[in-house]
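Technical note accompanying the year-one report. For the benefit of new consortium partners, we illustrate the data format agreed upon in the data management plan: each record pairs a sequence with a structure-token string. No post-processing was applied to the example shown here.
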Amino acid sequence: MDKMKLKRLFLIPALALAGCASFQSGDVRVDRGGLREMLGDKDIAPFSAVRLTWTNYPYFNPADLIGRGTVEGTPPPKPVPVTREDFFELRRKAETVMAEAGLYDRARGKGTLYLDLTTYGRWTYRDIFNSFLVETPWIMIFPRSLRANYRLVATSDRDKRILAEEFATHKTVFHALIFPLYPFASPGARARALHRNLLWKTATDIYAALKNPAAEEAEEPADAEEPGTPVPQATEEIEHAPVVYPEPGSTEKLPGTPLQ
């Protein structure tokens, strides 16, 4: 009888770990035609360095914010650094993909390629065992999912434009009946596949941007405004726009004069 209880105790965490499957969504499919063109192009000028930054907003339980709000509202989320292993693994993968794509060559390249990755809702098993799986005991009866969103932006010191901007979503579904899918769709393997697809899609976008540089549009002179009329430029400038008084001799009302 004691052996049966021990087996059940080990079965519960095993189902919690294996009772999930991950899927990815977003426009991260690489165009085969563009990929072949990029791999066959020997004239593209590569970069000499790749710099990766990773801003991570991890998963959090909304219940943790209870009692922490203020009159102005709940505090904004704060980024949390990823582990050194995850960061260096992704950086090595980024350098490998860009080198295979012909966009990175330390010896003959020129300039630096900056890759800025932002993740929202990225989780670890430790995170969800402390909150998600513990506070939702019915999770193995009714399906429940977690989403992690990715945004990757590529820029360089050779170009003022944004060379590429990609979005993707990593969705993990938890349910006891889907444990047979775990070996084929484990969260870790799916996340690594999403990173690879995201990098290759970004590489093809960078190649397309470098091959088709946008012509700099001539700045058109602003239309002449009537005297005493401020020209709004942006939301911040509108909110803090200085008071503009009418020209001398004008019949316009002074600022702050109530309407009659």
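Partners are asked to follow this layout when depositing records. The first strand starts at residue 20 and ends at 25.
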